[in-house]
Automatic annotation (TrEMBL):
This is M23 family metallopeptidase. PANTHER family: L-ALA--D-GLU ENDOPEPTIDASE (PTHR21666:SF289), PEPTIDASE-RELATED (PTHR21666). It holds the Pfam family Peptidase_M23. Keywords: Signal. The keyword Signal applies. It comes from Ureibacillus endophyticus. The lineage of its organism: Bacteria, Bacillati, Bacillota, Bacilli, Bacillales. GO terms for molecular function: metalloendopeptidase activity. Signal peptide: none annotated. InterPro entries: Cell_wall_metabolism_enzyme (IPR050570), Dup_hybrid_motif (IPR011055), M23ase_b-sheet_dom (IPR016047). Residues 171-269 form the M23ase beta-sheet core domain.
């Protein structure tokens, strides 16, 4: 955070730099084709971008020759070097790039599009920036269990990969948490609501994107929290709705299976999105939620 604050200005607020850095860190964690930058800051530029495409020295650190060959790498700490391995130089270079586009959010969108050439990436980084700005913090990693761990009966087990027959041959991409009708369903994470409405498979469902490029899917709900809408920011424990048995048909279909919450998790890696087993995370979050109750 101190580094983001160091390189922000009236055109480029800290949460823009933090959001880009977090996005880069996220994809480095899940992409084998991208080297993981072993430093505090995860942002990394290509050698061509930093030193210049025609520069005969791809690892050039001289601000003079970098500029001569059209490179964009800059000296951010006044040591006379423009090093792609120096966090201060990297953040200063990114801040300088963004500042050329202007101070508005629309300017930021254009800057991101020019740099990443992907609408999905632009959307993800904007979401992270919106969360950081709203909470005025980058510490948004707390998670809780999606139903109350006290006062309601529930059960779940690992059902990842089980066969599903309705709607064609497919596998179960999530964990079913069985509970009584209208048992509260809460957000497990910080995030922004991307989807809220009917799906023939999931019934009434909510989709939330967090700051780790993870999409959280809550399905088969009986009702929604009427105070929420698409675009709203949520935090761990925010009421989303209640457990139901909706889905497997046209809008309003219910009762084709016992009431339960289908909880799924999907990861975006900058190119594609895929489902992964949420069960290990749910076990951890259940334990954490129970510990919180003991402290109260």
């Amino acid at each position: 955070m101190s580094m983001y604050l160091q390189f922000q200005d009236y055109i480029v607020p800290w949460y823009y730099l933090a959001a880009i850095d977090q996005y880069e860190r996220n994809i480095q964690d899940v992409r084998k084709d991208i080297p993981k930058r072993d430093s505090t800051v995860a942002i990394q530029f290509s050698k061509e971008y930093w030193a210049g495409a025609m520069n005969p020295v791809p690892d050039d650190t001289s601000p003079f020759t970098i500029k001569y060959f059209g490179g964009l790498g800059l000296d951010g700490n006044g040591d006379g070097l423009a090093s792609a391995d120096d966090d201060e130089d990297v953040l200063f270079t990114m801040s300088n790039y963004l500042s050329k586009f202007g101070p508005s959010e629309e300017d930021f969108k254009i800057a991101l599009w020019e740099y990443y050439q992907s609408e999905m990436v632009v959307k993800q980084i904007l979401s992270i920036a919106k969360m950081y700005k709203h909470f005025n913090s980058i510490d948004l990693d707390t998670h809780v269990f999606p139903v109350p761990v006290r006062g309601y009966n529930y059960s779940y087990r690992g059902t990842w990969g089980a066969n599903r027959g309705w709607g064609g041959r497919r596998i179960h991409e999530g964990t079913d948490i069985f509970a009584g009708y209208s048992t509260p369903v809460v957000s497990t994470s910080y995030g922004i609501i991307e989807v809220m409405g009917w799906n023939e498979f999931g019934g009434w469902r909510v989709g939330i994107r967090d700051n780790h490029n993870t999409y959280h899917y809550y399905a088969h709900l009986a009702y929604f929290n009427k105070g929420l809408k698409v675009g709203d920011i949520v935090e761990p424990g925010t009421l989303l709705g209640g457990v139901g048995s909706t889905g497997y048909g046209k809008e309003g279909t219910s009762g084709k299976f016992p009431p339960h919450l289908h909880y799924g998790m999907y990861k975006f890696n900058g190119r594609t999105e895929w489902a992964f087993d949420p069960y290990p995370s749910l076990v951890q979050w259940e334990k954490y939620s129970k510990q919180l109750l003991k402290k109260k």
